[in-house]
């Protein structure tokens, strides 16, 4: 693709990187077949190829973006399925990230949208505010249908995601290996997962400790920056990244491990976000399933052979290119792993997409749920808290993190959500 950026524009590293990405696109259209929004709408502007053309025009022209540009950039999930498909190696993550930041700086949204986009990072990245917001959400959760009728879809979407009260996970500290010590890892504590699914951290600490690793939950760490990046707030994300690099600087771990696939994609981009200061974090960042595939599982215990539908988070399979390890680990642990049809398509969670674009997110969720049902599996495994929260209300089977299953299979407690499933399997 030809570009016509000015020398002044190309002096900006973001424009230079975007030009490189744009010039690789040959408009072949392979990406359209795997783009979730194009599959739903059939609108070229909702495909990566169409968005790339809109982004090129917006960046080259400068000034205020048109309503059309904003609408179709906002509809992108950043699932990056297009990057898996693209034969030319277009860095679509760079383009969509640059476009969002540009829109954030040059477009004036309606007051309600501005408030919502401010509230999301202000609340979801702060544990105390998030805890209070979830408590408030539980008290008014029964009003969700009314918000739908009032055309307040984002509020209804938020209420649908609110979980039941749960015991908070363990806090910062070092949790020693329980078997022969092999090393030390930092476990990213995250901001949303501890409130939405605290059992995942507990399972991860037990599993890593049995694998021979001291687990460090570092004091002073915060959000990885993913939520802010989804909103085009790049400088805010950069500040969060700097805070984490500082908090981890004294630990010297073998790896920085995360149980949230979306966070892992962001950690691995710290070199891009922070330059040389972020490169060491990016080099050591690992999804927990990726790490366990490298170091091996602890010895297995006897467990029922349950059928598990493995849902691959987009941020793991497309963003991090971790494709075979999760299902292989589950199979090694004795589970009957079943692939979900159309597994390359997003479930509609995509960071905060299910809040900002609930109509598209609900269509993708229902499509994903129908494909999960087709597997006939008794349990669903998904390695990202957003996917778990998105899918769980739409399926009858319990939805758990693969780490919970691997912890159980290697001597940990059975996930409480599987009690009825296991009892039913025992009867049959």
From TrEMBL:
Binds 2 [4Fe-4S] clusters. Signal peptide: none annotated. Its cofactor is [4Fe-4S] cluster. PROSITE patterns: 4FE4S_FER_1, 4FE4S_FER_2. SUPFAM superfamilies: 4Fe-4S ferredoxins. GO terms for molecular function: 4 iron, 4 sulfur cluster binding; glycolate dehydrogenase activity; metal ion binding. Gene3D superfamilies: Alpha-helical ferredoxin (1.10.1060.10). Its EC number is 1.1.99.14. The keyword Electron transport applies. It catalyses: glycolate + A = glyoxylate + AH2; (R)-lactate + A = pyruvate + AH2. Keywords: 4Fe-4S, Electron transport, Iron, Iron-sulfur, Metal-binding, Repeat, Transport. InterPro entries: 4Fe4S_Fe-S-bd (IPR017896), 4Fe4S_Fe_S_CS (IPR017900), Cys_rich_dom (IPR004017), Glc_ox_4Fe-4S (IPR012257), Helical_ferredxn (IPR009051). Pfam families: CCG, Fer4_8. The keyword Transport applies. Residues 16-45, 67-90 form the 4Fe-4S ferredoxin-type domain. Component of a complex that catalyzes the oxidation of glycolate to glyoxylate. PANTHER family: GLYCOLATE OXIDASE IRON-SULFUR SUBUNIT. This is Glycolate oxidase iron-sulfur subunit. It comes from Phenylobacterium soli.
């Amino acid at each position: 693709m030809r570009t016509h950026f000015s020398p002044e524009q190309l002096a900006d590293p973001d424009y230079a990187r975007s030009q490189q990405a744009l010039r690789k696109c040959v408009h072949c259209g392979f990406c359209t077949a795997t783009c979730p929004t194009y599959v739903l709408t059939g609108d070229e502007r909702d495909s990566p190829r169409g968005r790339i053309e809109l982004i090129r025009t917006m960046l080259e022209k400068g000034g205020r973006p048109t309503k059309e540009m904003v609408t179709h950039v906002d509809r992108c999930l950043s699932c990056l399925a297009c990057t898996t498909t693209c034969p030319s190696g277009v860095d679509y993550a760079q383009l969509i990230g640059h476009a969002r930041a540009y829109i954030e700086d040059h477009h004036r949204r309606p007051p309600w949208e501005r408030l919502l986009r401010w509230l999301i990072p202000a609340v979801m990245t702060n544990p105390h505010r998030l805890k209070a917001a979830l408590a408030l959400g539980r008290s008014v959760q029964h009003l969700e249908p009314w918000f739908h009728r009032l055309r307040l879809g984002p509020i209804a979407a938020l209420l649908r995601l609110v979980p039941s009260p749960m015991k908070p996970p363990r806090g910062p500290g070092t949790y020693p290996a329980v078997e022969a010590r092999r090393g030390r890892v930092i476990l990213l504590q995250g901001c949303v997962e501890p409130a939405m699914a605290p059992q995942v951290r507990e399972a991860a600490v037990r599993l890593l400790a049995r694998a021979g690793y001291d687990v460090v939950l570092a004091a002073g760490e915060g959000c990885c920056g993913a939520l802010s990046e989804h909103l085009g707030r790049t400088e805010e994300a950069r500040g969060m990244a700097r805070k984490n690099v500082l908090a981890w600087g004294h630990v010297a771990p073998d790896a920085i491990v995360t149980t949230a696939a979306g966070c892992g994609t962001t950690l691995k981009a710290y070199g891009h976000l922070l330059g040389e200061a972020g490169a060491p974090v990016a080099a050591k960042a690992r999804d927990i399933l990726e790490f366990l595939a490298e170091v091996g599982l602890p010895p297995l215990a006897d467990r029922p052979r349950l059928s598990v539908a493995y849902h691959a988070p987009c941020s793991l399979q497309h963003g991090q290119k971790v494709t075979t390890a999760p299902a292989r680990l589950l199979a090694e642990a004795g589970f009957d792993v079943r692939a979900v049809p159309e597994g390359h398509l997003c479930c509609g969670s995509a960071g905060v997409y299910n809040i900002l674009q609930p109509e598209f997110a609900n269509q993708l969720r229902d499509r994903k749920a129908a494909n999960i049902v087709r597997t006939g599996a008794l349990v669903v495994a998904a390695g990202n808290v957003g996917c778990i929260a998105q899918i769980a209300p739409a399926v009858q089977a319990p939805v758990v993190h693969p780490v919970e299953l691997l912890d159980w299979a290697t001597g940990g407690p059975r996930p409480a959500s599987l009690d009825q499933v296991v009892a039913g399997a025992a009867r049959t």
